[in-house]
Design goal:
Blueprint: H1 8-22, E1 43-46, H2 59-67, E2 72-73, E3 76-79, E4 85-87, E5 110-114, E6 117-121, H3 129-132, H4 146-149, H5 160-174, E7 179-180, E8 183-184, H6 187-192, H7 198-207, H8 209-213, E9 216-220, H9 224-233, E10 239-244, H10 253-257, H11 264-267, H12 270-276, E11 282-284, H13 287-290, H14 305-311, E12 315-321, H15 343-354, E13 360-363, H16 366-374
Parallel strand pairs: 1-2, 1-13, 2-7, 3-8, 9-10, 10-11, 11-12, 12-13
Antiparallel strand pairs: 3-4, 5-6
Helix pairs in contact: 2-5, 15-16
Length: 375
């Protein structure tokens, strides 16, 4: 499948050419993110925006990511009660909004299990968009990210369409194309709730000139939705499909719901990767599946996964690098404490993984990712 899609330079350059020619609503000329000649460099994906510095999935987080040089920004997508796609990392709202402090919504506190994880609190599909818009974003891990937490209460939850319009305007303003890497979250859960994501998602892509032309990589931890999107969107040369995987014997949610036996561990075998290449363009494992941690917390020897993915004809784009000591391998930590921000260590860790020949990677701090790529 990947053979019919363009290389990174061609992917962005083609999107740039068509966007500049057809997006009459955008001011200025859209230029490629990497206009210089030479080999393709790894893509820097802004994980939930610049989520190390601003509350995740807010326009502020996306603006900071774009200003810091991200090639793509990531809106994770879930559905409101009235069927609107909004940018949240999961259906559970308590960790990233101020809903727990809103007495008008106290009666909506429930206990629910989604994709095997049980939470007690408030869930996006119990709220209309109008209700969700009254909430304000907060930082998920304020002890580690006090700068981001200082923005608590300032920003709204945003819709997918608002994200697209914002990125299109930013692209026109700064003169380079910014890609989108949306993730369809909990597809099986939302389908069972009568709020299927896929048709509304495809309709939104088709309705916006920017997403008809600019680079878009669509991610999921599930399998059936990517297979559907491959069938429906196969002729769209500005799109790639990304299969996310976890580590070990865990099953994708759609596989588990259907009583299947396929696990992420099996998907990461050479045979599993060849099967992924039948419907997806990108294989995206967690970083520690590529270079695991030893017992002392330092990086061990790389696994064969990087070479296996390339042998299957797949791009390799890993998740997620974070700039605090608690998330960094012991090789690169400094003496600042587990919650301390460690820019040099994060850059060094990313560079170690880049030696594997990554095509792209997710980072909570795109500015550091850009420095890592620059060498």
């Amino acid at each position: 499948m990947t053979g019919r899609y363009l290389s990174r330079r061609g992917f962005i350059a083609a999107a740039t050419k068509t966007a500049a020619a057809t997006a009459a609503g955008l001011a200025g000329t859209l230029l490629p993110a990497a206009a210089t000649a030479g080999p393709a460099r790894p893509l820097v994906f802004a994980h939930r925006g610049a989520s190390a510095l601003r509350p995740e999935h807010t326009l502020a987080a996306y603006a900071k990511a774009i200003a810091d040089g991200a090639d793509f920004i990531e809106p994770d997508l879930v559905s409101t009660k009235d069927g609107v796609l909004v940018a949240r990392h999961e259906a559970f709202l308590a960790e990233t909004t101020d809903v727990a402090k809103r007495p008008e919504f106290a009666s909506r506190r429930v206990r629910r299990t989604i994709d095997g994880d049980t939470h007690e609190g408030w869930f996006v599909d119990d709220f209309t968009l109008a209700e969700l818009k009254t909430l304000r974003a907060i930082e998920r891990i304020p002890v580690s990210r006090p700068e981001s937490a200082s923005y608590d209460g300032m920003f709204q939850v945003v819709t997918f369409e608002e994200v697209i319009d914002f990125v299109a305007a930013q692209s026109a303003t700064i003169g380079r194309v910014i890609g989108l890497v949306p993730e369809l979250k909990h597809s099986t859960y939302f389908a069972r709730a009568g709020l299927p994501l896929e048709e509304r998602f495809m309709a939104t892509l088709a309705a916006h000139e920017y997403t008809r032309r600019a680079p878009v990589e669509i991610q999921s931890f599930e399998v059936a939705n990517l297979r559907l999107l491959r069938e429906k969107l196969d002729k769209r040369t500005n799109l790639r499909l990304m299969q996310l995987v976890g580590i070990g014997p865990v099953k994708p949610s759609d596989v588990a719901a259907a009583g299947g036996s396929l696990t992420y561990a099996e998907m990461a075998t050479p045979a599993g990767l060849r099967e992924i290449a039948r419907y997806a363009d990108v294989f995206s494992p967690p970083t520690r599946a590529l270079i695991p941690l030893a017992k002392d917390g330092r990086l061990a020897a790389p696994t064969s996964l990087a070479s296996d993915a390339r042998a299957a004809g797949l791009r390799l784009e890993t998740w997620t690098f974070r700039p605090e000591n608690r998330f960094i391998a012991a090789d690169f930590r400094d003496g600042g404490g587990e919650h301390a921000r460690n820019e040099a260590g994060s850059i060094a860790e990313m560079r170690r993984y880049l030696e594997l020949g990554l095509d792209g990677f997710f980072t909570d701090d795109p500015a550091l990712g850009v420095k890592a790529v620059a060498g």
